[in-house]
Design goal:
Layout lengths: L1 H8 L4 H12 L6 H17 L3 H12 L6 H15 L7 H12 L7 H17 L3 H10 L20 H12 L3 H18 L4 H17 L2 H18 L5 H17 L2 H10 L15 H11 L3 H18 L9 H9 L4 H18 L2 H13 L3 H17 L3 H15 L2 H14 L2 H13 L1
Helix pairs in contact: 1-2, 2-3, 3-4, 3-5, 4-5, 5-7, 6-7, 7-8, 7-9, 8-9, 9-10, 9-11, 10-11, 11-12, 11-13, 12-13, 13-14, 13-15, 15-16, 16-17, 17-18, 18-19, 19-20, 20-21, 21-22, 21-23, 22-23
Protein name: Tetratricopeptide repeat protein
Organism: Streptomyces lasiicapitis
InterPro entries: TPR-like_helical_dom_sf
């Protein structure tokens, strides 16, 4: 009964779930399969209550009691999942190597293998490994291009976070069509099942962020505000699901040119140090640094971005689209320390080319152009436009078009950039393009 009560309140009330499942596990009467399921659900509730360390300990302790087999493999996969989003992980590179070795020979013959392939894909994406390999890993985790039976959005054996990682991996590998299909399916599945808690909140958040990546900024803002409305019903601001959606919404509002609205969201949800124990998509520290710079808090913004660089480098996470701190830091340092700025962009460009997407390379080239002048800047902006026109990220393309038009003095490019900015809902960028056109 306690186990079933815990299942019923999962992600509508994480605290209640934790209490029920801990009491159930302290008693005799649960068979091995139910104990493993209860531990997995307990760890999930702990993670969503910002107690990730306790969630990891629960998995470790139960796994130590089991022999090799499917039950232990499930716990191992769940442990890798929580480690992969643990901001305080001490040996992230070592875990990545172990996960790569474990997932390398897997074909996706069952859901345990598919889970490990998804975890490997997400880890490779955050580390900025080759995007084509990330996509290949994601594809191996599907059955005929769809989620396997037992891994659907409302299936409970494997946490729904696994599917969020799958869609997120596709999204940051420039496969936004696949990510959008997955997250649209998630929203529909949860609404049809009557699930209105954390599952639906995070589904709206990730669908909203796909809209943000595609340059549909108005749609993104709508979905992300709905995500936060739903998350507020689960608990007060400060839970990981609040920070996830808030990070996405702040990033979207900054792209729209609404820095004051972004600041209001940050204040309401306590989007400031110390961070929660999980990592976020997009990287929360990078978003926070960009927000501080946009608000004119230069020193605080620089400090935040420097701390971001240190933390992500220690974790071996080099995806420059997921965490674009180097570009914001380089632009902020361009006048006072041009050599450091150039080094930051050069390093980021190496990582972007390693990842290999049009978006990653285009953004790296665009930032490099911002540090140049004259014909060199114009040539680099033209190259950035070529890459970003081929990417699925319309807002980044719009920014590149406007900056190319400014650098070259080309009315046609500014007009194209203005049209793209208006279509995206990027009000600040559109206003900048109009001002520049007025000067020509």
């Amino acid at each position: 009964m306690l186990y079933e009560l815990g299942c019923a309140t999962l992600l509508t009330s994480p605290v209640t779930t934790i209490g029920h499942l801990r009491e159930a596990l302290s008693m005799t009467g649960l068979g091995q399969d139910l104990r493993v399921d209860a531990v997995c659900r307990l760890s999930q509730a702990l993670v969503h209550n910002d107690q990730l360390g306790e969630g990891l300990r629960a998995i470790t302790e139960e796994a130590a009691k089991l022999p090799d087999g499917p039950a232990q493999l499930r716990l191992k996969a769940v442990h890798y999942m929580w480690e992969g989003i643990h901001a305080g992980e001490e040996d992230s590179p070592g875990r990545s190597r172990r996960l790569a070795a474990l997932a390398g020979p897997l074909t996706g013959r069952d859901n345990a293998e598919r889970a490990l392939l998804i975890l490997r894909a997400f880890d490779a994406m955050t580390r900025g490994e080759n995007a084509e390999e990330v996509v290949e890993l994601c594809d191996r985790a599907l059955v005929n291009g769809r989620l396997a039976p037992g891994l659907g959005w409302t299936d409970t054996e494997w946490g729904f976070e696994l599917r969020l990682m799958l869609g997120g991996s596709y999204a940051f590998a420039d496969r936004l069509d696949r990510a959008e299909s997955l997250f649209t399916e998630a929203v529909r599945a949860y609404e049809a099942a009557g699930w209105s808690g954390g599952h639906l909140a995070l589904a709206h958040a990730f669908l909203g962020y796909v809209h943000r990546r595609r340059g549909r900024l108005r749609d993104a803002e709508k979905s992300l505000r709905e995500s936060l409305r739903l998350a507020d019903r689960v608990g007060q601001g400060g839970l990981p699901m609040h920070w996830e959606a808030a990070s996405m919404l702040i990033d979207t509002l900054l792209a729209r040119g609404h820095a004051e609205q972004a600041s209001a969201v940050a204040d309401h949800y306590g989007f400031a140090p110390p961070s929660a124990s999980t990592i976020y998509v997009p990287d929360a520290m990078s978003v926070r640094g960009r927000l501080l710079l946009a608000l004119g808090h230069r020193e605080d913004g620089l400090n935040e971005l420097e701390a971001t660089a240190k933390a992500l480098t220690a974790r071996g996470q080099y995806n420059t689209v997921l965490a674009p701190w180097a570009y914001d830091l380089a632009r902020a340092l361009a006048d006072e320390d041009p050599r450091r700025a150039a080094d930051l962009v050069a390093d980021a460009r190496v990582q972007a080319e390693r990842f290999g997407t049009d978006t990653a390379i285009g953004e790296a080239v665009r930032c490099a152009a911002a540090l140049e002048t004259g014909a060199r800047a114009v040539a680099l902006y033209a190259k950035a436009v070529t890459y970003l026109e081929a990417s699925p990220c319309a807002y980044e393309h719009a920014v590149a078009r406007v900056e190319y038009g400014v650098a070259s003095g080309a009315v046609e490019e500014l007009e194209r950039g203005l049209a793209l900015a208006r279509a995206c809902g990027a009000d600040g960028l559109a206003a900048r393009a109009e001002r520049e056109l007025g000067r020509l």
